[in-house]
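This week, look over our next protein:
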Amino acid sequence: MFEFEYSPHKKGIEKILSPMESEIMEIMWRKKMATAKEVFSSLKKGKRSSISIILQRLCEKGLLSRKEEIAKGGKRYIYSVKIDRETFEKYVVKTVIDSLIESFGEGVRDYLKQI
């Protein structure tokens, strides 16, 4: 689905995504579809060019998709959610647990039985 690094000391989806990527994904999960301008308006911080770069990075990670549209002012991209929040969370949990089992085997299995 997508590759990620897990940072256990961080909170929420920032364990997986950068703080700005996390904020943008929260917006995209609410809106389902948006332009960079709309995301920028919702964030009310950062530069619009930075938002566009992060949206593209989220596309490359497989979390968003984009389609080009010709509008009055020229071309623009419409970004859409490829993975809903629930699917994202389930994938992260499965991937992290599988990785822990691969590295620590029975210790992880024993712990999971206790909780």
Summary: The CA atoms of residues 107 and 113 lie 10 Å apart. The domain at 10-82 is CATH 1.10.10.10 (Arc Repressor Mutant, subunit A). The chain has two domains: 10-82, 84-115.
